[in-house]
What does this fold into?
Amino acid sequence: MVTTFHANAAAADVALVAVVEQIADAAGQRLLALYSDSNRVPDRGSMARAARLNEEASSAGLREALIAAQPGARWANEDYETTELPAGEWWVVDTVEGNVNHIHGLPEWCVSITLVRDGEPVLAVVRQPVPGISYVALRGGGAFADGVPMHASEKSTLDVAVVGTGQAEAGQSDTYRRIGESVTALLGSALMVRMQVPSTFPILLVAAGHTDAFWQYEPTLPGIAAGILFITESGGVVTTIDGSPWAAGAGSILFAAAGVHGSVIDALAKIA
It folds into this structure.
C-alpha cells in the first residue's frame, strides 16, 4: 500500500524512506530464510550460534546500502547505545530486533532502521517479515503501518489503560528490582500490565492505540530510536519516567498516550 505522508514532511526524506524500506525488506527476507515457527535452541551455545548467524545474514550489505542511500550519514555503533550522538546524521540500526524470538520460533522480530539528525529521529522504518508488515514514520509526516495512519489512544484514565514494560539488559540487577516494583505499582491502578521483549513491538502498540503506555529502565538507543518517532508522530508523548524531557543517556524512558501520561508518572514516582 502506498503511504501518503503529511505535507510537513521534507521531500528529501519522503524519497529516502522508500529506499530504506527496500533495504529493510531485503534484510528481512534474509532473516526469513532462516526462520521457522519450529525453530528451537536447546542450550546457550546453540542460542549464541543461531543469533550470530541471524546477525550476519541481516547485516550483509546493510550498512553499505544505507550509507550509499544517504551519503554523509554515519553509522552509530555500540559505543553510542547509551550516549548522545554527535551532531549530524546517523543511522541507528537494530539488524535483528527480537533475535531471541526468531531463534525460538516466535514472530516478534524485525529489522529496525532510524535516521537520527542532530539528535532527533527523523525517519524510521521497521520491517516485520512475519506476518509481513512495514511500519514507517517521518518527522512531520506521520506514522503508518502498511500505509494506514497510526494514532495513539484517546483514553484519559489509567483504570481502563493497558500498559507495559520490558526486560532490562543482562546483568542489571538493580534494574530488575525497579522493573518488578514498577509492574507491582501499575497492577493496582491500570486495567492490565504486560511485559514484552523486544521493546519495538510494545512501543508500536502504543503508537497504534492498541495499548496506552510502555516504560523501560536503562534503554539502549537501537531499541527505542524508531519508537520515539512513531510515538510522537502518532500523537503520543515521550519523556523519562519522571516526566522530564528525554535525551540520550537518560536512565529511563516512557512512551504514553497523552491522556494517561501523567497518571503513569504518578504511579511510578515512588520507585527509586
